[in-house]
Amino acid sequence: MPRLAQKTPRRQQILEALASMLEASPGERITTAGLARTVGVSEAALYRHFPSKAKMFEGLIDFVEEAIFSRVTIILKEEANAYTRLERILALLLGFSEKNPGISRILNGDALAGETERVRGRVTQFYGRLETQIKQVLRDGELNEGLRTCITAAAASNMLMSLVEGKITQYVRSKFQRTPTQYWPEQWQQLMDGFFRESLSQAPRHSVSRQNTPIVAKVHGAS
Fold first, then answer.
1. pLDDT band at residue 221 under the 50/70/90 scheme
2. What's phi and psi for 196, nearest 5 deg?
3. Exposed/middle/buried for 148, CB within 10 Å: 0-12, 13-18, 19+?
4. What's the chain's Rg over C-alpha atoms?
5. pLDDT value at position 7?
6. What is the mean pLDDT of the segment spanning 40-69?
7. Are 15 and 35 in contact (CB under 8 A)?
8. CB–CB of 112/123 below 8 Å?
């Protein structure tokens, strides 16, 4: 792999290299020695920017949180309908994972074997926060639109997150061959058939192809 451009801030270079290595070597652990070679610096130089490999992983998790939740905020402002909000939020995460294969290994825990409990906990917190947001969308849909799920909002939001997490895990397990968005429009249609007690007043709308999801190499000021 060619040495990264020097004009890119070193911290971002390191995170981009880490994400790239996670993608290039599915199932393998990343060493700081290998990462240093990829960036073109010494291991000591790596530690001047990140005190540990765990902090490097946390830097990528920070990027995930900012990328996803900043766009969730936009979706909530742009869409008033609970159905469309749900579809766009879940499609956002699927599209993001597909465009960032290396980071998908973090999201499903594959890359975090042997890492600190704090790092693994950060991923758990990310999914918990997103599930809470989805639950709130369902509750707002019932309050504002009279849309009630056939099961409780807590059970419904957990079911949706389980499906999305499962598709990300399939993506990693297949070495990035089975994409998270594969079959998603059909699956979403089937999932929504009977999801709400009341019939939907508008036709299903699939946003996978519309998602402008970021990739880690385009992030500026990652921490």
1. very low
2. -100, 150
3. middle
4. 19
5. 55
6. 94
7. no
8. yes
